[in-house]
Recover the amino acids of this structure.
């Protein structure tokens, strides 16, 4: 399973400290990231945050980061059919009118509720430990496992993959091993948890609180084109994670999908390359063995061969970092509003790698698993459609 590490600052205008926010979240099993409302539109950063939330799945682990320390461990739980919900109707539309939504606000005790548009619930997994671990302690416990944790900077939260999550989880459990044997409900080393808030939410949640990518795209479109790449990334990520059949037909089924994943050797964060969407698929019936890694690069406008060259840079990185030279484990997509004739004609040239596989005997193989996909926003459908350049079925 994946993990989410939420960054908690020093509290909200002195109302409550960072550690009190963590304690309150553990006590109730609820969390919402502060996202200030804006005028008429969401910016790309907010769309990216929404996209990360939309990829969250049941049983993903939850951690909090505050002043160098990581606290946990939580596990995401469903509320009816979804895990992330709107805090009030139309919370995914900027500039709400509080008077119009008060009766249906879920987190009524949350100050400035209109700045907390989405929320999720979670339970202990196995316990909420008071004792956090220092980031250096985590990184040094299993250096090869940690990638995204090293880039945890100037973001609301990060998502880590199964391997990184397991390493972080193991570090926290070992640091709190004395509390794992017959823990007392009143132990000072464990944050207490009550199911009361979850039951209350379950009784009040409605279809008006459903959260998806469609409103984000509707607010961002200009004719058939979207103005922000982050919105497209959020849409693809959500529709793959939710198992939408038409989107699966285009991009395939993914067991893990993440947004803005590091794609370069460690260096100052602002200089790091990041893949728009990155994930993997497990070998069927073996949910610990990765069969294939998948990369998607998104361009909101018309693009040329440079998009193909960029995604191939990521293909080479993933091959070296994850696949140990086996390109056959990678599949890549370029998504754009339109590809130039030059991009189409050079696709087979740019999107090709020759590599050796196996030993005694080794075989020379050709990798050519790069697919071009064009998108178009359909206002009548209130969604984006995607089409492979080879003329495959439209995503509707």
């Amino acid at each position: 399973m994946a993990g989410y590490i939420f960054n908690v600052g020093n509290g909200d205008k002195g109302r409550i400290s960072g550690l009190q926010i963590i304690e309150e979240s553990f006590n109730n099993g609820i969390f919402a990231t502060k996202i200030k409302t804006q005028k008429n539109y969401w910016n790309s950063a907010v769309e990216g945050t929404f996209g990360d939330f939309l990829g969250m799945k049941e049983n993903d682990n939850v951690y909090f980061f505050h002043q160098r320390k990581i606290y946990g461990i939580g596990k995401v739980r469903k509320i009816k059919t979804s895990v992330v919900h709107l805090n009030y109707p139309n919370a995914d539309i900027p500039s709400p009118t509080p008077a119009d939504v008060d009766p249906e606000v879920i987190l009524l005790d949350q100050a400035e509720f209109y700045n907390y548009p989405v929320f999720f619930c979670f339970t202990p997994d196995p316990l909420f430990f008071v004792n956090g671990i220092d980031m250096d302690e985590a990184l040094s416990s299993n250096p090869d496992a940690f990638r995204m944790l090293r880039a945890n900077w100037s973001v609301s939260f990060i998502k880590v993959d199964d391997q990184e999550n397991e390493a972080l989880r193991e570090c926290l459990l070992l640091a709190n091993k004395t509390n794992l044997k017959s823990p007392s409900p009143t132990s000072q080393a464990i944050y207490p948890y009550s199911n009361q808030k979850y039951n209350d939410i379950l009784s009040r949640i409605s279809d008006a609180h459903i959260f998806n990518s469609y409103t984000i795209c509707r607010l961002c479109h200009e004719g058939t084109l979207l103005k922000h790449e982050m919105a497209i990334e959020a849409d693809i990520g959500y529709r793959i994670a939710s198992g939408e059949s038409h989107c699966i037909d285009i991009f395939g089924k993914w067991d893990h999908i993440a947004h803005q994943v590091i794609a370069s050797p460690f260096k100052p964060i602002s200089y790091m390359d990041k893949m728009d969407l990155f994930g993997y698929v497990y070998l069927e019936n073996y949910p610990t063995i990765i069969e294939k890694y998948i990369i998607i690069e998104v361009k909101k406008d018309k693009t040329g061969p440079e998009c193909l060259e960029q995604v191939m840079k990521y293909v080479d990185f993933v091959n070296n970092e994850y696949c140990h030279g086996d390109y056959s484990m990678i599949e890549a997509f370029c998504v754009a509003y339109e590809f130039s004739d030059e991009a189409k004609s050079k696709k087979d040239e740019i999107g090709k790698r020759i590599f050796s596989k196996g030993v005694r005997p080794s075989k020379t193989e050709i990798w050519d698993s790069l697919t071009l996909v064009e998108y178009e926003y359909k206002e009548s459908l209130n969604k984006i459609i995607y089409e492979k350049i080879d003329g495959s079925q439209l995503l509707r």
